[in-house]
Amino acid sequence: MAEGKILRELFLIRHGESRGNAGIEGDCPADSEDPRLTGLGVSQAEKLGIYLSDKIRFDCVFSSGLRRAVETARGIIEYQPGSPALNILPDLCEIGISPDYPGMNTEALRELCPSAVIAQGYEEREKLVVPDETPGENEERYFSRAETVMNYLEGLFTEGEKLALVSHAAFLTYLIFYITGYRDREPFYDYTLANTSVTRIIFYEKGTYPYGDVAIEYVNNTAHLV
Fold first, then answer.
1. Domain 6-225 -> CATH class
2. DSSP code of residue 8
3. Domain boundary assignment for the chain
4. DSSP letters along 30-71, please?
5. At residue 61, what are phi and psi to the nearest 5 degrees?
6. What are phi and psi of 67, to 5 degrees?
7. N or C: the chain end with fewer CB closer than 10 Å?
8. What is the tens place of the pLDDT at every residue in 66-88?
9. CA dist., res. 203 & res. 215, Å (int)
10. Rounded CA gap, 223 and 226, in Å?
11. Helix axes 169-179, 140-156, angle to 10 degrees
12. 144, 152 in Cβ contact below 8 A?
């Protein structure tokens, strides 16, 4: 079996079922923009955490600053040895967030996940969400944000680290598109990313792996829900 020098492994994880996914309307603007997990979503996150704990020791866990992602990440962290910190990476935010929604602050996020901290380099970010004044228009913004995330990770992790990125269906799709070479337009195909699905992508040092520098091991793995 061919081997190469692994720089980093990304595990792209969509959050569990949210109240928005379930069609439950919020009682206030925050609940509409930033819904929490349903009971099913909490159960999905727990099952995912148990499933991953048997297979993977994450070097770092990242999440968007939206509640459904933070709650899902907590379900992963609780089953990891030592309960590592949850790094809030604002650029993992879902697309389509209203500019009127200020997002949660660090203290509020720590009520959802006590180990939550702001990711290195983002400590001075005013908002932990990314507002989107014109959802669906000018998609270059989403590819640009995907590039920002990838450059950030490439600058910090080069020793084969295993990284969990808990985010959202639309933004994760753009991130996968970017990784697979689509940088300014969507391809003619799409990805299905179910709640708490896992997509594993391995990055190799250039020229060390005969089948390319990036390997997508699997997409939309939901074995933990069976």
1. alpha beta
2. E
3. 6-225
4. HHHHS--B-HHHHHHHHHHHHHHHTT---SEEEE-SSHHHHH
5. -120, 125
6. -60, -40
7. N
8. 999 999 999 999 999 988 999 99
9. 7
10. 6
11. 70
12. no
